[in-house]
């Protein structure tokens, strides 16, 4: 069995100390959207139309005004540009998938776009530039939905048919952490899951027009299973994480890596210790971090092996500082019941 190989790696048996320092969000909303702009500015979002903002590195998280008509919406994604400008994406059936924008530090909001597909469901939003953004949604009529704007959100266009976006039966994208969609140097990638297995859809850089090519990613199969998050590291190394969110403690095939831009994928030798909803790379520490409901894992060998993070009572760390997380935008992490943490770089070196 693959897990048994951990016994041959001595360092795997030594858990890393807790990495996240808990912060006060002053909300009980479930948070799945987080975006670090830099310079102490970050934005977070979640259920009940919740949007939060910090301008001082998380010392104080401000509760934003709720966008009009969004009191019951679930903001699964946020993309910010500075302390005043951000867009938030609500995920839900039909027109419960919406996009709002603020340009005055979240004092007021404008509804930019609502899902035109009654059977649609938005999963991720990514800003390529301040003018150009993308929305990825579940399949409608057998094809993944992809919308784009080139004017800051004033107008949105659905991508054309026949772009290689056709889905398999039951295939979908997971709106777990707004990290199922990735844009690297203008090239788009997204990951899926379902009963037929997971795939990575990659924009063809050699084609004459925008087109996607899908490649199989090793992952559990099922309606609630697949790849939930993808991230890029040095030299375009890609890491994908996921699992089955109905089985949070099941570790089989929860992480894989690709060294050729996502064409071929290899399952990690030592896997994260459960389902994982988000992954990110800390370039300064040369460390990968992945989070989920039952804990946090790190890898210092580019995703080949993962080891769990554990709180250290001797360091007066919160006993659940490594658990119950949904999404990452380093150094921040967010989770249910208003949980927000900030990465402790020193913990990576202990």
Element pattern in H and E: EEEEEEEEEEEEEEEEEEEEEEEEEEEEEH
Q: Tell me the distance between the termini.
A: 31 Å
How does the major sheet shape up? Answer: 5 strands, mixed
Strand order of the largest sheet: 1-26-25-24-23
Protein structure class:
mainly beta
Number of helices: 1
- Determine the fraction of residues in helical runs and give it as a percent range: under 10%
Low-confidence stretches: 1-13
- Computed Rg: 19 Å
Quick one: how many beta strands?
29
Mean pLDDT, all residues: 90
C-alpha geometry: globular
Strand content: 35-45%
Detailed description of the structure:
This protein is mainly β and 350 residues long. The protein has a domain at 160-328 and 343-350. 1% of the residues lie in helices and 41% in strands. It is built from 1 helix and 29 strands. It has one helix at 345-349; strands at 16-17, 20-23, 31-38, 41-46, 51-54, 62-63, 75-80, 86-90, 98-102, 110-114, 122-127, 133-140, 143-149, 157-158, 181-184, 187-191, 198-203, 212-217, 225-232, 238-244, 255-258, 266-267, 278-282, 287-292, 295-299, 307-310, 327-329, 332-334, 340-343. Strands 1-26-25-24-23 form a 5-stranded mixed sheet, with no helix packed on it. Strands 2-29-28-27 form a 4-stranded antiparallel sheet, with no helix packed on it. β25 (295-299) and β26 form a beta hairpin. The longest helix has 5 residues, at 345-349. The two termini are 31 Å apart. 52% of the residues are buried.
